[in-house]
Amino acid sequence: MSRRRTSSQGSLGPDDEVMPYSDDETDDELAVSSEEEPEPEVPHPPVEARLSEIGWKVKANDRPYHHLPEFQKKVFLCIKKSRYSGNAIKTYKYNVLTFLPLNLYEQFKRAANLYFLALLILQIIPDISTLPWYTTLIPLVVVLGITAIKDLVDDLARHRMDKEINNRKCDVLLDGRFQESKWMDIQVGDVVRLKKNDFIPADILLLSSSNPNSLCYVETAELDGETNLKFKMGLRVTDETLQEERQLAGFNALIECEEPNNRLDKFTGTMLWNRERYPLELDNMLLRGCKVRNTEVCHGLVIFAGADTKIMRNSGKTRFKRTKIDELMNYMVYTIFVLLILVSAGLAIGHTYWYEDIGSKAWYLYDGKNQDASYRGFLSFWGYIIVLNTMVPISLYVSVEVIRLGQSKFINWDLQMYFPEKDTPAKARTTTLNEQLGQIKYIFSDKTGTLTQNIMQFKKCTIAGRNYGCPTTAEGVSLDRGKPVDWSWNRYADKKFQFMDHFLVAHVRSKKDKDAMEFFKLLSLCHTVMVEHKEDGDLVYQAASPDEGALVTAARNFGFVFLSRTQDSITIKEMEQEVTYEMLALLDFNSDRKRMSIVLKFPDGRIRLYCKGADTVIYERLSPNSKHKDTTQTALDEFANETLRTLCLCYKDISAAEYETWSRKHKEAQVTMLDRDAALDSVYEQIETNLMLIGATAIEDKLQDGVPETIAKLAKADIKIWVLTGDKKETAENIGYSCSLLTDDMQIHYGEDVNEKLRVRQANRRTEPQSFHRKKKPAEPFFPEQGKNALIITGGWLNEILYEKKKKRRRLRLRRLGKRPPPSNPQDGQPMNDWEKEMRQIDFVDMACECEAVICCRVTPKQKANVVSLVKKYKKAVTLSIGDGANDVNMIKTADIGVGISGQEGMQAVMSSDYAFAQFRYLQRLLLVHGRWSYIRMCKFLRFFFFKNFAFTLVHFWYSFFSGYSSQVGYEDWFITLYNLCYSSLPVLLVGLLDQDVNDRLSLKFPKLYLPGQQGTLFNYRNFFISLFHGIFVSLITFFIPYGAFLQTMGQDGEAPSDYQSFAVVTASSLIFTVNLQISLDTSYWTFVNCFAVLGSIAIYFGIMFDIHSAGIHVLFTSMFTFTGVASNALRQPYLWLTIILTVGISLLPVMCIEFLHKTIWPSVGDKVQRNRKKYEIELEEEEKKKPPAFQRGRRSRRSAYAFSHSRGYADLISSGQSIRRRPLARGGPQDSIREVPQREAENS
């Protein structure tokens, strides 16, 4: 099946290779972009005028300058402070003074806490109070205390992390000399000195370094998850004059640059020094979060500090996250409030009528108060608010917090989510979102470092029509399983490099196969890799991309070792023989060429061109006489079928005359001022013809272990995975196939196709009458035909589709013209109003959600967050984002749940995440096991908690019909106080902590068990009302069966124990048995602890009851313990025990019958798995013994991703000699000309 690629070349659409940054464009960029739109009537301001308006000014070595009044901003009323942020970061919420008031304020924002505070105040009023104040105060203090302690522990952890970062040490130039200073004390304008392996403390302008030409290598893993090094360079003028401490102390330049923003790929500014202006760009900047590598010392000037740095600007806002169940629970509590008020009002009205008819006329009820019936009814209303307050149980919230804390600990302790190689356990960094893990519908994942390891491995190759790479002996006999090659014969070999084909190694070492020799010679010569010689003799390669490094390392292991290079030569060791080649030209890679070449002069005088690149461009340039085309094509198909990244190698011999002619053209193109890149590409094209094919390489972009299986399993759980990456389109697509996110039976739709479909839908909507818009008819599907669909869209197209770019340009035009533009022409593709823009966004989300897979590539950090928020907004689905770098922080914070991959890539994503672990594969366990269990447990806990409190509280309601609606309680006061604390809390708490319908292995085997969580079927308003009616039924039985038993009853001793206190003991005992046995019936997973909790709760009830009914405690506290001897008197009557048994039996029997019928006639997936649990467990054991084969996937079409993933190399750097030339001993003055460093590819997001 052939797949159409939407090319950006020659189309009016955005360039797929460019990463758009319209989300945070600076004003000068907007002006530049808008100049593309012809507006002749408005003259453009000159460049100098625009530069003078740049508001961010930094003066070197001058701290007072940044505190001048012109740089002050208003904070509050007349209080002002400097607009320049300090370098300290603050992620904590409280300090010593603010903890208590702020924490209490936050806790009382929760409606239930505020309600109980109001209730406590009511209970202090004597006329209203029907219960002692301590019945509310004790639970309230416990809840507030536990929550405050948990918040304090969380905040102390944040304090520790902030302190660790802020107290890192760095050398700062103060008073003319470098002094060790803390990061938090660094200020804008300071000159700092950084050493090898130091983290960069702020966004710094590189002034000079110990390397030639102030070259400085940095590792950007914290920013983008990439471990390959990138180079930065200081200006030549600062490099030549700012090396010594004395020179740096006298540095007084003024930097004018853009305002702080989140753009990781761009920086513009100028440096004014000694009356000269020097342009600044991103290549001159060292960004906070990066690490200095392979550079002994470098010096820099702090431009942005703390919150103004680019890494912090990309972190997005910290959002307070709450679960769906939390929101639902709050609405249910509000519902209970309403029910409480209605019931209390009804009973108050009943008391009013009762007092008028009976109460006021009964002499024995006279209380000496001359209050009319209405006033007594009013007091009764507040009395019932207090009596029935346990319908809203305060212990609910503390129980929920305890359960969540326990679930978080289970995640932390899970050894199956522990990564031993890095000694990294899983970490739940929040305790409030666990049950939400069981409701995820969409996962948004980064690619580099999250799905992949960002490690490239040379796996296979084809040379002169023969394939190599499979396990083979030195004699060429194929093996099913082989041992890696022993590289001990090669002292330069990289010991980590693994290769299974012993035959190819033997072939190369024999030196008989000229093609194989030429193949590896090409790999060792045709590249832009830089080399560093370690003291122990080891070689360290610095490559512009991991692909380059993998190929040169492969050549090194096969005996072709790249040793060194200069501006015009390259030295390699060919099978222990050192050879130096003269480099005549280096034709670097770029996105359009998709290949790179090198022209070399051999020691014997021959001139040869070596070329490597994507098969799509190499095959067009092959000579008709080139051999092995078909066999290499077949091999390429096979390699692509295994999702390997392919690359063709070829060569061409050039005569001296031909080279001289071409060289003249090359030099002319190098100095042309008009469109130099296009001129060079045209010259390159002339010599890269009639190439002779040698073979092809196959590189594996190593996925993390278990990624395809994890994605497949999550897909079975109906979880959709979207990949949001800053990588290029073809690379992202290739990884999509590698990890089985994309499959051959999918129809892939690209940006142009998507835009067209959305444009047609929008045009149709415009032609419909307005009345159609008001009718909510279901939208037609975008893909009505059968089959699976996938979306691959670039950041440029995303802006085009969502009108982001147009919005910026319209805003700029408004500002410049000073008036509103006329209404848009409906045909120009622009939104006519906000409603139309919103409908466009809804259409895009609907289309994407119809697809099986979505890949967004070349997207910025802010675009990642925007995509997540669009799905959250329009699909109302629970989302999860997972990433590993600073560019993923915004996305992680925007999603309902953020997961950080912890490991070598840095800690930025982890610090902003809710959960962290080391490998993507652990995600399936986090969701399908811990998430599902947490959701089931929390739902079961809440259903039962509401039931047991309705059953407990509504006994007062039935009792009121027999007590003149006088807001008297049906139980003893101490029973009311201890019911939720001691008598019924432990069994339900343990169900919320430990219950599981099936074990973890079966949870992973049957992903469909996850669906109830996505659909929210286990806890919703339907379940709430079932719990309410169940509670009403149990309270009815609990009250009326004992009531009937007490009517006209005589005990064995001839006494009638039908008093109020004996009745209260019997109803309370019946309720305790019913509630604890009911939770026993609902428990799926029995442990000793559960059994102990149920029996222990009943035992505690009787133990405490007999204690507080004893004569001894009554003597000590006469007014507080009034039920003296009631329990021992009532519970020695056998017929009262029969009453309790009858009450409990009738309460439980209907529920047991309904459960039996439900599981027999309408069993859920979980019920079926439970029923056949033993059989499935035996199957799992057999599967483990067999060990299934490694994950394989076949497909028919071929992709070559090397050229697309490869970044622009160090060719300009090498050709200029700036990285190689030794530093001159005597330094001259500043140069007149400013060296231009070629702008490299944007750093991957």
From TrEMBL:
UniProt entry tagged with the keyword Transport: no
Reactions accelerated catalytically: a 1,2-diacyl-sn-glycero-3-phosphocholine(out) + ATP + H2O = a 1,2-diacyl-sn-glycero-3-phosphocholine(in) + ADP + phosphate + H(+); ATP + H2O + phospholipidSide 1 = ADP + phosphate + phospholipidSide 2; a 1,2-diacyl-sn-glycero-3-phospho-L-serine(out) + ATP + H2O = a 1,2-diacyl-sn-glycero-3-phospho-L-serine(in) + ADP + phosphate + H(+)
EC assignment: 7.6.2.1
Residues reported in the UniProt entry to bind Mg(2+): 446, 448, 884, 888
Start and end residues of each stretch annotated as Disordered: 1-46, 814-834, 1221-1245
Cross-referenced CDD domains: P-type_ATPase_APLT_Dnf-like
Basic and acidic residues: bias regions: 1233-1245
Pfam families per record: Cation_ATPase, E1-E2_ATPase, PhoLip_ATPase_C, PhoLip_ATPase_N
Main location: membrane
One MF term in the entry's GO annotations: flippase activity
Topology relative to the membrane: Multi-pass membrane protein
Gene Ontology biological-process annotations: Golgi organization; phospholipid translocation
Alphabetic keyword roster: ATP-binding, Cell membrane, Cell projection, Endoplasmic reticulum, Golgi apparatus, Magnesium, Membrane, Metal-binding, Nucleotide-binding, Translocase, Transmembrane, Transmembrane helix
Family note: Belongs to the cation transport ATPase (P-type) (TC 3.A.3) family. Type IV subfamily.
Name the UniProt record assigns to this protein: Phospholipid-transporting ATPase
Organism the protein comes from: Parambassis ranga
Lineage of the organism: Eukaryota, Metazoa, Chordata, Craniata, Vertebrata
